[in-house]
Structures
1.
Amino acid sequence: MFTPGSKYLIAITGLSAVSFALYMLLVHPSALGAVALIGLVAATSLITGVALFTRDGHTPDGQTSAATVDTPTPSMWPLVGAAGFALLLVGTITTPIVFIFGIVAIFAALVEWTVQAWSEGASGDNAYNASIRQRILNPIEYPILAAVGIAVIIFSFSRVMLATNKDAGAIIFIVVAAVVSVVGMLISLRPSLKKGIIGTIAVVAAVGLVGAGIASMGVGMREDLVVAAEEDHYAHQECGEEKSEHFDKGVSETISATSGVDATIELIDGKLTAQVQGIEGLQDSITVRRSNPSNIIFRNKDAGEFRLKANLGKKQIADGVMEEVVTCTQLISEGAEQWLTLTINKPSVSGEPYTLSIPGLKGQSIVVVVP
Amino acid sequence: MTLVNRLGGVICRLKSLILGTAGTVFLASCGRNAPQDTFQPKGPNAQKIDTLQKPVFAVAGIIGVIVAVAVVYSMVKFRDRGQPIPKQSHGNPALEITLTIIPALILAVVGVFTFRTVFDLNKTSDTQMIINVTGQQWWWEYDYPANNEYGITQPIITSGQLVIPVGTKVMLRETSRDVIHSYWIPALNGKRDAVPGRITTNRIEADEPGIYAGQCTEFCGLSHANMRMEAVALSKEDFAKWVANQLKPYAAPAESTLAKEGETVFLNQCTRCHQVNGLTRADGTPVIAAPDENVWSGAAPNLSHLMSRNTFAGAMFNLVTPECRTDVWKSESVTFGAKYLAGVDEPCLNQTDLRGWLRNAPAMKPMYANPALLAATGGKYRGMPNLGLSESDIEKLVAYLLTLK
């Protein structure tokens, strides 16, 4: 006979299934809703099945429930596996990293629980069974736990360093390094030190570091990093005549590429010229292919720092609002060269032509023709 | 029964089949209608390859025959007939050194001539004309940068057929917009890969006016086998006429004609991908096609002066009827240019294939053009999709396309 508990669970399972069916048929279904409801149906079905199989733990006098036969040792791994399955479901509709965590948790639960179950049946001696479990799993568990521990330490410490200002960060780095060295040295000088004390120090340090990391995440990154990220300093090209504080930082002035060049643009004595492979002499225009990356080398052979700027027309960014499309090299010094890749999707059949020019240098430009 | 005896039995039973196959292969080599035959050079670059490959092929063939005869002789002469194992000898320094030196000398001689030919073919310093060749699934685009010497005052862009002047050292600057392709006109030069992000050069030159067929030779997806090309060599005078025609401004169809209605259909349906230089909208604004927004490679054939070409759809289909095509292909050098430059008019138009293409392009050429299966390309097509045009629209479009001469 069904126990009251089983009946409740059967009802919940039925309601879940009906809800899922109604949701899919009558409501415009979303992935999130569908996964949530199908997950609910699966979970309640599982629990209901277990309750029915074990008769909800209720056994009539003189009988033995199937669930009471050969009861396994309590283990946390089914719980980990269930959590992993939940992460797996959530990960399918959120981000891949959650899905990966789910896979890892399920895999870990499968391995650990399988080996644990196998070892418990090895003999009647629990101590021996535990030892063979350790012999198999410890060589896997310790490196993985060590790697996870190191990752947590690095991540926590990096959060702290990103939250504090540069000067304070340097001091914190020095102090922490010094404390770790001193504590390590003291422990090595006192080999008789109790393990409990060493363990306590390690736990306190770990908790402190993780706590500081969490607190730093709450505070967020320091202001200059936030501003740099918001303004996209290091990717945003500033193609003016003047030196850009961010874009012109760490200038690359040599090119290792030797092939795949569409044209070489040189600035010599205030004059801009183009050389194209296969065409004799200097050109005042170059032809590049539509919708295809075209590589151009810019060589500055003039005194002073200059950049090559590509003027690629205008694009509409809002109703009636046009914005100039430009790209450029960094500001490079005399004798230096830099690579500029152009991808132009529209032909230059009308309007203003595409050009290459030097900011601050009047009357010099190379026409870029896109057939 | 020994293995050799069993093998002999099998050969006897299948000798008709083997002889028939060998005979067919042999007779196939005598075929004269072989436009992609590597042994029929039509230009100095292909001639250099031919001059190299024929003696190398002969030497390799003679050595191959000697080795094959020696192997067969040994197999038959010393086959297992139950006789005792003959005396085994190991080591014969004189013989081994001889058998090492002879092949090494042959390879050295072949190597010298091969390297010389490779360097000759890679020479670019005396180039007279440059053409940019861009491959994409599954057609070739040709653009001619401005070159005053040949009257190219504005860049010319075309596809399907590469038009060159005879006796001119033309350098093809090849690249690709999507995957690796390979450009090969066997009668004019060897093959050269077109690789995304790289420029590779390939020099061609034709001795005589004519059409020279080619084929993409790097597997590039579903319609690789249908990615063809043709090089059309014209006399310098005829090439100048071709250039002048390509530079002609756009001529809109006359009002109240079927072609004018076709222009409207073209504006609504085709200009999302295909450019026709000079075409304007009703308000006078120029039409700029946006293949970069609709096609994975970012390009679609420019259809300005479409009817000056003899092929379409990556040179897979003839734009002219078989009779008209034969008339051009088989014409004498003297008359070839005039016939080719006449372009395509209504009597010569291959209406069947062109209408079929407009009706349902993916049915005629395998392409990844099913909108339901474009997740990997962000919804962009690889190849031309089925536009679902009505027969009336197709009628108008054909009339309009005929005006693009």
2.
Amino acid sequence: MTSKYTITLFTGISIGVLALGAVSLLLFALNISPITVVQVMSAGSASNWMRISHVLSIWIPLLLCASGLLLTFRAGLWNIGVEGQVVMGAIFATATLRLLDGQAEPALVLAIAMAAGLLGGGLWGMLAGILRNQCGVHEIFGGLGLNFVAQGIILYLIFGSWKRAGMASMSGTELFGRDLWLSVPTGWRVPPISLTIAITAFILTALLLAITRFGLRLKAVGQNREAARLFGIRPDLVSLLGMMLGGGLAGLAGCLQVTGVYHRLIPSISSGYGYLGLLIVMLAGYRAVPVPFIALFFAALTAGSIQLPIVMQVDSSLSGVIQGAFVLSALLVHGLNQRKKQRDKQKNKQQGAGN
Amino acid sequence: MIELRDIHKYFGSVKALQGVSLKVEAGSIHGVVGENGAGKSTLMKVLTGYIARTSGSLLFSGKEVEIQTPRDGTSLGIGMLYQEPLDFLQLSVLDNFMAGAADFQRKKMKKKLLALANRFGFTLHPDSPLYWLTVGERQQLELLRLIHANIRVLILDEPTTGISGEQQDLLFGALRSLKEEGCAIILVSHKLAEIEALCDRLTILRRGKTVAEQEQPFDRNSVLTAMFGEFSDQPPPDQNSTVITAGKKKKLVSFHEVCSSTGRSGLDAVSTDLYEGEVVGLAGLDGSGQSVFLKICADLLPHTGSVERFNHQHSTSSDQGDKQAVFLPADRLSEGLIASLSIREHLLLADNTPLFMLPATGREEAQQAIETYNILGQPGTAAGDLSGGNQQRLLLSLIPAKARLILMENPTRGLDVRSGNWTWHHLREQLPEDGAIIFASPDLEEIMEQASRVIVFFDGRIILDRPVDETDLDEISRAITGQVNSECQIEK
């Protein structure tokens, strides 16, 4: 009998081999040396602190979104609405900054903006949860719809009420005053406070899942709503809370993108990090511990690929191909594992007595 | 016309059919009866080709044939009317009628449908969507579709469940006229009255074997004996008599005109009271209402009518603090336990869940429960990895000490005799004086041994309600098949 950890390790290795093998084959077919690609990408993401901190600036929203998604996945929910939750977090944060600019200490305004971001994402998550509980709209469809609504709102704001003086532009709203930027030390490209928030949020999420009553109930509901009811758990309430918390963390990611990275609201504020978060959590097998590492790997891929067109005339979307290859391999390996498990179970059932 | 010879079907080591033979003549109606798990459905599935048999032969008009897939069955003219109609709810009546037919001319098919419906006295509007129809009407449509496909062997599986009396008369009329036309009809049913009204011959299955065959007129007593086996005259003496005769106690649960549409037969205006100190056994064939009754007791299903529990109009089973009623479902893993949670986590969830818990929290309690309840596993073993008996013991260990109303479906299913006895011993010991156990069981011996009162369900209604020592297995098994002695005041 093999232990759980050996199986997990084996699963991880087979996913990596499968994905890298597939991508290498593709590169060979295109007559590009995979080794050069690796060199360029690693140089682009880790050659100096500036580049590493750039990777970290991508890691932050990924880690936050993935943390939120760990909660919703644990509740058995497919929170596709994570993108919209990032956007709403960014909108709420921008609104706060615009409203309170000059009214209070910048630090206080920023803190309130963070809370607003949390609230915005949380509300958007709650909406998807209510649609699911009260109206029977599956969270995938509800979330997808709400993503479009959020995108509509952000475009309306950027081209309407919040447009720059004289002209509206895809490049977003007016920049905030420097005092409302999260401070970045020289030589860094990432505000230390963002990093702290993201890491803290992840650790709290992991602890919430591992050692609290809420985490246990979330797991119970995610696995078997009917049985959870027999334990006196209210599945609707628990999964709604999961959606709110998950949405809140995504909203926080949106807020940090506004206050720490772009210093304004732009149409593509989420940069697809929400969807990438879904892939990260799936690749982690819905467990917390691998999430920061996979998120870091994905962030490095994204940052490193920026060099590709310059050095090798290869489009930077190669990083997307690599990420996709990993996710497909993960789904494949997990699927095969599942099928094997099921077959074993069936065999056991047939061997056991009873009808 | 069609003959099955020495059919065996094994699922792994489970012998569902062990040498069943059946011969059905053209122009006759042949009944197949048996208790739950006797092998009726498996036999019919073999006949239609839905499942492949392990051994034995099939003869059609005297020639040996091979039926391995449903397609083979259809091409030989074997059609089956399933308990739940297999149709397309979103499509219209006409579209359903045409589905699978060779002819796709709407006008022509519409005419044919109306002509057929007319012939049997069915009223079906070709353009209504199917979800407007009752189960009985859907069944009529399905029957017409099969007749249009020129079936020569018609199998019906419990066709009168869930349809009205009028629809039943129409159906029986249709079956009789099909019989006149030379169709071979097999009727699977647990209702002896309809078997007697319709069938020419009768085969009784028990535990995968043919135990008896009879020609009209049937002898009810010997049919029942064949179905349920010989009973020992005296139920073994037990300790429960002391529990019941403690005099009239207070009401624990009170049902008044409770109806529900869930389950196969739902629940039809059930009124009864359950008292403190009672152990009530619920009998009846699968899906006759016992399970719905239990779940409504546990406040798990919506219903109409009033249910009063613990003298409250509205119970609060969902409140963690007030867990006075517990429900132990029959399908332990899919309804009662959470497969990936460990024994320890289940115990933590069941009662007084602490706000924070470390990996060590509750480990000792779990170890203790494992010893007390004799569960083969570690505190960290996932419920899904436990065997059936151990899952049941885990469920038992989750019953909070303060539980007053214990509701169980098949409490000893899949348990060996020793574990079964242990389970009952434990349940009785744990039950507080003002508590009650209500359980459904297909095993009548278990009900006679353990219960102080028996309630028999038939078609969603209570057909018999007696203290155990005022009834016997004979009366109970009659009631299960829908017959009550005239002295009993409950009308059929």
